[in-house]
Amino acid sequence: MEQDERTLRVLVPRADIEVRVDRMRMQQVFVNLMTNALRYTPPPGRIWASATMEGTEVIVRVSDEGVGIASDR
Questions:
Q1: How much is the pLDDT for 1?
Q2: Which pTM value belongs to this model?
Q3: Which residues, at least 6 apart from 9, have a Cβ–Cβ distance to it below 8 Å?
Q4: Whole-number Å distance between alpha carbons of 70 and 46
């Protein structure tokens, strides 16, 4: 997934976040999210991946500078 024309920033808390998930399924989810971000972010573009704790939930967000998804979809 090396892309010289795009910048990836990963923002996570300093403390470890422990979750119980199906590793293969989560890998598939993250690969799909990052592949889509790379595909639809025109160069030179930026992509952000972040994880935060909100109560007992872990929230993962991927943002990019691509065209995006229409709000009605």
A1: 54
A2: 0.77
A3: 46, 47, 48, 49
A4: 20
